[in-house]
Amino acid sequence: MAKERVDVLAYKQGLFDTREQAKRGVMAGLVVAVINGERFDKPGEKIDEATELKLKGEKLKYVSRGGLKLEKALNQFGLSVEGKIAIDIGASTGGFTDVMLQNGASQVFSVDVGTNQLAWKLRNDPRVVSMEQFNFRYAEPDDFEATPSFASIDVSFISLDLILPALHRILAGNGQVVALVKPQFEAGREQIGKNGIIKDPKIHFAVLEKVAAFAGTHGFAVMGVDYSPIQGGHGNIEFLMYLEKKKRKQSQLQSSWRLLWSWHTRNLNMKSKNIRLEKIRRFIRDHEVGTQEEIVEHLKEEGISATQATVSRDIKELGIVKRPLKDMTYVYELPRKHHQGIGMIESNILSHRRMGEYVNFTMVPGTAPLVKRRLREIYKEHIFSIVADDDTILLIAYSAPEAENILKSIFGW
């Protein structure tokens, strides 16, 4: 099994916003293993790249952080597993299985070619049928005591081409599937870059087209596509694909292609937006800019067309604030650290006070709304309520210990 530095792995798994933050976090003893709580304090230590990490004191929703992938798919595609019999193909520690159970699945077949990986609490759950050392590509209906109507697929080192035909034999009519599409295991060898990384969006789209076409000729309709919220090994972008089992016609195959193209076009537009945001950020960082008109003109010089209304929305999204000058005029200014996570939160806090589950933050003027959004994103499982004005935030946690843990996470205590 390949190994990776602890700080690099912590960064790739989204625990920190930068490699430098990850290095400091590891040295501070903030990073532990999900399975056994082992603490890592040497950034350069190399560990199994399959090791799931978390921040010390962090409460994970599921037995594996990978469960967040299926959670997003259920929410994004409007799917329900309530009362359904389901199958988790490539279960590993059981993150997807846990999501299904927490969302009301009546039974889950947890299938994996490995052994002794499924989390102990899932092994002992009467709703779970653990099927270890089971190669699903050879699966038959008789292997299962009941017919699943929902399936998830998260497999590595094998193409979905080898999984979908077997799944079609087993899944109930009109059954639903959430498949994780991993370009590094679907693309041709000549398309895969150094260390197995694929960065080219054209290859990503070609892979999605390939999987959709194969699924269509094997009795599945593509109903939706989105990004996985967690990157794969070595930082590869992966995708969530929602399929339904049904008889296909050529017109339906064309519909699947149109769905993919529409999704791809939207994301190209998002890429253009990200370029525009970065141009604005750098312009404000390097110049004294006092009006939106100046930004619009600068973008025009850079070959980017944008209205003042668009720039106004971009300024809000970037968390840009107005700083007063001695002559009573104002210039735009970026938050003190333009990081999008814990580092950004900490850098904009001037002071704080805690009383039980209540925490009051005094912020750099103008940054409170942006920091409020980041706090809610990162600590949503621990926050009962949060309100903000221009320079203060009132956070109410579900309990006093959770409020304290939030502060420990922010300040690295």
From TrEMBL:
SMART domains: S4 (SM00363). GO terms for cellular component: cytoplasm. Pathway: Amino-acid biosynthesis; L-arginine biosynthesis [regulation]. Keywords: Amino-acid biosynthesis, Arginine biosynthesis, Cytoplasm, DNA-binding, Repressor, RNA-binding, Transcription, Transcription regulation. GO terms for biological process: L-arginine biosynthetic process; methylation; protein complex oligomerization; regulation of arginine biosynthetic process. It holds the Pfam family FtsJ. It comes from the Bacteria. InterPro entries: Arg_repress, Arg_repress_C, Arg_repress_C_sf, Arg_repress_DNA-bd, Hemolysin_A/TlyA, RNA_MeTrfase_FtsJ_dom, S4_RNA-bd, S4_RNA-bd_sf. Residues 4-71 form the RNA-binding S4 domain. One of its GO terms (molecular function) is methyltransferase activity. It is found in: Cytoplasm. Gene3D superfamilies: 3.30.1360.40, RNA-binding S4 domain, Vaccinia Virus protein VP39, Winged helix-like DNA-binding domain superfamily/Winged helix DNA-binding domain. The keyword Cell cycle does not apply. Its main location: cytoplasm. Regulates arginine biosynthesis genes. Belongs to the TlyA family. This is Arginine repressor. It comes from Streptococcus parasanguinis F0405.
